[in-house]
Batch of 4 targets.
Target 1
Amino acid sequence: MDAGRERDLVERCRRGDEGAFQELVDEHRSLVFALIARVIPDRSRTEDAAQDVFLRMYRGLPYFRGESRLSTWIYRIVANVCAQEAARRPPLASLDDDRARPPAPAAADRQFSDLELRERLEKAIARLPPNQRLLVAAHYLEGIQYEDLAEALNMPMGTVKTHLYRAKQQLRRMLETDLR
Amino acid sequence: MFCDQVVELLEPIAAGDLAPDEGVQRHLASCARCAEALAAARRVDQLLRSRLVPTPPPQFTGRTIARIRRDRWRREQFFDAGFNVAIAAVLAGVVLGVWMIIDRSGLSAISSDLVDLFSEEVVTVARQMAPSMSLYAGATALIATALAIWWWAERDVTL
């Protein structure tokens, strides 16, 4: 969305134009939903949390001064919602829980299939700290820029990259045996 | 170059953010452990790139707007209730103040006579109204029903 149209939409929202806010939701819903769904492992909470983001946007729009880009502000709200969700979520089960069970004889020396590996990757991602999880989720989504994330998370660009590398290093270590 | 130094560079190399220099390349060619770690880092990167992008359900926007309307309605109700309480408090204060002025200025003795007079009038009017009481009760019930329907319709629309 170009800056002029964005400003116009925000202004219309501030004047109480519900249609304008609906346009704003339509514009950002895919990105917000994908981001939230990737960061919050509990699928039953995904839609509620994504709606929370837009509800906070609606409440906060009168105070949005336009000093940062709207997308930056939205990522900041996403980060806050994700942090709150992480705080209320019970501690995750160990990544090796399913390994504790005795393996089926046929599967004992079978290599992990791609699907199983993906499942374990999701579990490993769920074990990352919320900030790193958000970075991993956002970095691989189209349309999200490093600058926005750095500003949204109040971090220099270099720190964002360092966090991202550390997160991936952690993932690699958690999946070490599966990746061989 | 040592493994410790190379390990720190594996993620940027796997992500394509850093091109390995000659020293790193030589180390990777000679150290199976680091080469394996780089392959694993590349695999993680590839897996992350190919993660499914969850899409919102088609009714997402509608449900979000409905939730915002509910939230706005609740907030308005809250402010309305606060406003009503404030108005009631102000009225109570005014009544109390008037009563205190009347009491202190000695007007209460006169007002008690007025109350007696007024009570007698009320009794007279009530006696006159008694035969038509069922008509008044019916009219009151009609007005109450109309008010209840109005409240119900209004409540349904705002939800």
Target 2
Amino acid sequence: MTLNDILKESWLSISGNKIRSFLTVLGIIIGVMAVVIMVAVGETVQKEITDQFSSLGTNTIVIRAGAAQIGGVRSGNRQTLTTDDAAVIAKLPDVAAVSPVQVAGAQVVYGNKNWSTSMIGAYPDYTTVQTIDMEYGAFFDDIAVRNASTYAVIGPKTAAELGMDKNPVGEVIRIQNVPFVIIGVPKERGDSAMGSNDDMVMIPVTTLKKRLQGSRFPNAVSMIALKLFQDADNSVVIDQISALLRDRHRLKPGDEDDFQIMDMKQILETMTTVTGYLKLLLIAIAAVSLLVGAIGIMNMMLVSVAERTREIGIRKAIGARESNIIIQFLAESIMISFIGSMIGLVIGVGLAQGVGRFILGYHVPFSLWPVVLSISVAVVVGLASGVMPAIKAAKLNPIDSLRYE
Amino acid sequence: MKQIENIISMNKICKSFPLAIGGAQQVLFDVTFDINAGEFVAIMGPSGSGKSTCMNIIGALDTPTSGVYTLYGTNIANMTNDELATIRNEYIGFVFQNFNLLPKRTVLDNVMLPLMYRGMSPDDRIIRSREMLRRVGLEKFETYLPPQLSGGMKQRVAIARALAGNPKLILADEPTGALDSTMGNEILRFFKQLNRDMGITIIMITHEFEIAGYANRLIHIYDGRINYDGKIPTSEDALNKKTEKKARK
């Protein structure tokens, strides 16, 4: 038997019972489609999360003011970080840029419109730490920080929500009745793990603390964000910062840190691991439907062997060897599985790309391995589900088979 | 002088089948006969006499429990299933009572089937099969499916399939059983012609004396034993007298 004979015989057998073959193929289509879509969902989620954290920079470290212990009592409210801490950290050799950060909510008023957004008090180096490029105008400078000037850099989305022109530089907004002059608008950065990067107002940290919050501790900040040089070792710098801050905050050995150091690289690695497991879970769930599809093929092939007992008898009587019968039935199950896998692959990729890109607006990565997976599934499922029926068919006694009605 | 070639030798063939309740039922007892090339032999006997079991062994579809069966000098008693399949494919053409054609394959595909298992190239298969269809007068029906044909045409397709492998032996099991008398006689005349003109050995299983009359030799089996082996008697009564005489002995 040539390969052409095997394929022709398989196709004639499959097409001879169209509805049953279609329903069996449907099981594999759904199974492979589910796996392909779940792979795409998993990869998209993984990519989005990775991109969001990567946009912050893996060489970025954020120090948050944490619980302070006063006389053995933990207090979570106290802001333990100061702009002086930031200044000391800035002197570490591996630190490229540092900015104290104070975050607060803000009701921004522009003309008769208002918009609720987040307000970030920072230093000019915040642009380096967060990789902010300007679309219009400029970021505030050290003088503005020193003078607690009422300058604001407004996110493009915030500007749009307030109904401003494309270039709002020079416009005046009011925050808590304090007028701020817009001096710049950054380029769009999209969303990150920390929320929208385009919907915020950035002002000098001193302005936020002194003019808006009227803080009794104008130097205290909720966070310090810093960027390291590319070749810096995050863990070494973290140890240095930890030692430095513990010393500055006069923490005794055994005392808990009154700050938390968040290493974006570490977070990214953790998130990658978590999303990896998530992806595996999704694929495992989808694989169940594939398993059901495979059982469907095996069921069909077993029924087919029973129905075609006489045909098998005829073939054996005129000279078919056991291996010929095995190959024929295996080829049929592989062909069913292959057809189902290819259709499932096309529909799965089409749905994932179509829904992802055009409806949800995500860039769905197209990877080759669903294709490899589908072909592998086609062969493995076809073989696994066809072996038992094929052997059963090959072992049929030709005399009994010829008598079968 | 023409040399006689022995193609089948059955020597003390016994066959028994295991019973579900235990033990075994013997259906053939020391069956012994030879068949030479070019013979047209009818194996006759009533239902349950063992003639089908005998045919299965001759056709290498089954092996004897004891005894020696040689086909073209090869003892097939201890052959594996695949070796038996090769023997069937190369030496024997089967014609069955109910035709045993594949209903969803065209007439041409059915005729080509044994050639496919023999490993013949697709082009040669088509040429050979068309030639066989022409020989049985069905060359215009090669694209038909068996259910579209009459019983006689189906049996001619089965004969074309049996002839396609160029066998030395055609084994026909009640070949006219599913046909009316006109078509049946047509098929039997065709067998006669094949035997006479092409020298093909034909063994035909039947339970009807009239059909056996087309053969040159009759082997009568009764209760698993041969009780007549010789020329075709002049009538069924004559056969009965001969078999009764042997039974009395």
Target 3
Amino acid sequence: MSVNKSKPVYSPLRADTSGRYHLLVGMGAGAVALNRVLSEFRTEAPAALRLTQVLYTPNPTATAAIEAAGEAPTELHSFADVTALHRFADTTTPHSFADADALLRELRSMLDRSLMGTRLYVAGPESFIGRVLQIALSFNLNKDEIRAEHVGTLARRVHCVHCRTRTEDVRTNIVRCDGCARWLMVRDHYSRRFAAYMGVMIDAEAPGELPPLQEVFT
Amino acid sequence: MNDAQTLAVEVIAIEQVTPLVKHFTLAAADGAQLPAFSGGSHIIVVMNGAERVYRNPYSLLSSPHRLETYEIGVRRMEESRGGSRFMHDTLRVGDRLAIAHPVNLFALDKIAHKHVLIAGGIGITPFLAQLEDLHHSGASYELHYSVRSTEHAAFSSQLRERAGDRLRLYYDSEQQAIDFDGLLSAQPLGTHVYVCGPAGLINRVIETARGYGWPESHIHWEKFSAPPVGDAFDVFLARAKLNVHVPPDRSLLESIEAAGVEVPYLCRGGVCGFCQTRVLELDGELVHNDHFLSDADKARAKSIMPCVSRARCKSLVLDL
């Protein structure tokens, strides 16, 4: 176990009825967590649903994996989750996006128009949460305005400390940098500003000497 | 903080700015620069009165960018225990005072996108220094200042000069009131609200902001409680092995200090928690007057803020 304390801590999303407006943001299996929050509002504070917006994008990696395996989408996978979200269409229409970039663009413009009293809820893979929190931070949202739940893959976004390229969706202990092709060790040191884990060249002192490649972040 | 760590200052100017408020300018007795501070800081002024020592917190209102002098504004409190009367009636230009180093318990949030400042009466003082910081950082802000009438609008020309049309004045005499709902219901994300003034104003702002969903981290307030008077009681200091009598018009902290026992303090107004003291034994009840301990901690009665809190008890033993 790493002793690095920079790794973010997440907890299950709960409806925060002290807020006035609610912005729910999710990717892939994160829809399950968003649905839980919407259900809570339905029973505890139904009027809040009128001031609630949902932004959702499927997780392309997970979706491709399911299709490749020929599996029917299960409750935990993205397609079913979108359908589940639509159960709330009477009060809350989810805005669906083709990918995370499109969703984050809309999130930015929504936050720009949002008022004090807004609560942000985010659920999905860690790299997605990190990018959402990065935007939230730029709007001076504090810890008591944001809730985040990690659902799905542990795949990491890795920031190369040498060339500053971000390599996405890293599942292995070491990874070849998308930018400079160095072999990087994926550290537990997390940067909220970069929304990524630090990757440091692993064979700088003994070129070519690499530990065995292992899938550790699944 | 204790009195050994104070600075010696000289009063170099006194100006009556409203019927109730005097403006004091202090300089280091040795002519040196005073310690740096940020807008929202206060100092403790130690006053050697004829019969007793007063130690009152006052916000610094001068610019944090000028350290040749410190300036404070003091409202005369008729009903109080005497500190502000000493400042108003006894202190003369050329007199010396001891002050504690500035401490900031009411700082501006450095990464806020917008600041909404709300002052009532003498509560304007910390904002005067903060306006200097805001002016230098170029941050977006608005200042709402509520006073009894034009003659009570302390420092208004200075404020207008600095804040321009970002200043809005409200006169009770003309039935002008701050529209709290209008002010707090539609602020952009990343706004912080700061309030200083009478308890009623502070509570109104806090309650209204919470009602519109503002989280605690965006609501800032400062209220120095003068130590309230109460019934006399006795306290035993376990380590000093000393019995101390607390008369009705003296605080527990002042009584302990008068007995020669030093207690570390910073704000002396029930805000900072620095003087928190363990209660070892209690036969009776504590009268908590601070804004620091949680309601649960107050109910537990295992610690007390001697700067403003008292006891109604047969016996009380403190870990001092």
Target 4
Amino acid sequence: MPDFSTEPLFEIARRLEIRGETGWLAVLSPAADSAADLDQLQSELQSILQMPSRVIQLERSTFEELREALHHPHNDAVILSGGTGLTQEKWRSLDLMRSALERRGPVVLWLSPGDIGNLTDHAPNIRSFIGGSIFLAGPDGGFMTEAERQERLKELSEHFGFSGDEAVRRAAANESPHEPEFVEWLVLLGRGDLL
Amino acid sequence: MTLERARELAEALDTKTDSELGGLRLGTPSQVLTQIRAYLQRRSDTMNVRNNPIQLLKLYRSNGFAQIDLGPSIDKGPTPDHFRFDSGARLSFGITLRDVERGSQVVAFRYHYEFRDGQLPRYLRFDLNEEPHSDPLREPRCHLHPGIDDVRIPFSVHNPIEILDRIFFVVERAT
């Protein structure tokens, strides 16, 4: 597999935003079956492009269903998911219907890592829609690291003037302060169950 | 109007807040993070000061709860982790969510907007407490601190994004 640029899904959605409403790109999922990443991509497209987004499963769609889905509506963001991989025959039939795939709204092809070769070999016209816009979905970067969590726990302990153990004891005894910072402290201690 | 009557009204307001919170369903914590990040990025694109929401926002998940933070948990002065405004003001916030079926509910939040040095009031803080206080007149569950820690003005429950609307389009523009 050639080297493709690795980008967080947020940045990939930003690329579509900068390009304007229309455009095609392909995203290679980090694993063969990553439903959570697909949900995340859909959410990023919706938030960044500020338009509805839909996922269409390519494997399950007939020619007529796919054409209908892409054009009604024709201006939202669509993710065409290749699932765990499409057959060579499916790629060839998709390539034959390339004109029917053209639409006003943006299209993202969501492919398993091994499927890019099939796209290139068996769907050259669709491949030309995408050009160089192929990205590997990278880590999101939005998660708190353990060091960051520890830093916050220290900050909160200093603010309230007692330890995390004491915070848990007070919460269990229903003696906890009301501030949102205390709620945050319990969640960061993994004791949201005491809320 | 007596103090007792004022307390009764404050208690009724907290009951209303509780009911409104029950009806406020958000997307999953990841979706909420995505929405806030996109919102902050869009706002950043219109500003002179550079901020990087993708680095500033942090999500922590644990046992059915999620914490979305930007900036320090306690504002003790400017840090590189704050969201900075053209006016010289800075923002930090934390939102606690509870997982519910196909989404999440707001448990608590804090938004601390600190005006630029020398301006009065010094800050505005929008807080939602997790539970009602025993004296809801002094401490309504959902309240605004107008730059004074012990003064809490009640306000209605908002979607977390709508509080950012007030900060970006009202507070920041008034400075």
